[in-house]
Amino acid sequence: MIRISTNNDIERIMQIWLDTNISVHKYIPQEYWTSNAKYVKEAIQEAEVYVYEDNKEIIGFIGINKGHIEGIFVEEKYRNQGIGKELIAYCKNKYNKLTLEVYRKNTKAIKFYEREQFKLIKEDIEAANNEVEILMEWNQN
Questions:
Q1: What is the pLDDT of residues 15-47, one digit of tens each?
Q2: For residue 47, what pLDDT is reported?
Q3: Is residue 46 within 8 Å of residue 77, measured between CB atoms?
Q4: Contact 22, 66 (CB under 8 A)
Q5: Alpha-carbon distances of 7 from 13, 46, 133, rounded to whole Å
Q6: 52 beta partners
Q7: Looking at domain 2-139, does it have CATH number 3.40.630.30?
Q8: Which label site among 16, 25, 43, 96 has the fewest CB atoms less than 10 Å from its CB?
Q9: Structural contact between residues 13 and 49, judged by C-beta atoms closer than 8 angstroms
Q10: Quick check: 50 and 66 in contact, CB under 8 A?
C-alpha cells in the first residue's frame, strides 16, 4: 500500500534513507551521508513523501518536490520486488513530467529509470562530493 507520509514516519524514513545511501553508494564516504542526515530530515518534513507499507511496516518511500523526484529508497531485503516501480507509477499518475538526478556510477538505478522511460537530459558534477550526476526526465505523452 502506498500512502502519504506523516510526522510519525520520519524516523523510519530516515533509517531507510541512510541505510540505502550507504549500501548503494559505496563510492561515496559514509560520513557524507551521516553528515547530511540532519538537513535531509528537515527537507523530508517539508517535501511530498509517499511511503510503501507492507503489513503496516514502511519498507520504502519516494520523495518528490514539484515533479522532481528527490529519491526512491527501498529497504535492502525488499529490493528487486517491484516496489520502486510501484512508487514511480504512483507519481506518474500525479504528474505529467518527472525529473530526477542519479549518480553515473549507480548503473543499476540508471537502467531501472531507463526501463521506466526516463531519458538522459544532461550530466553535471555535484560539487559536494565531486561525483557525476545525470539529470533524467520522464514525460507523459
A1: 999 999 999 999 999 999 999 999 999 988 888
A2: 86
A3: no
A4: no
A5: 10, 10, 30
A6: 2, 60
A7: yes
A8: 96
A9: yes
A10: no
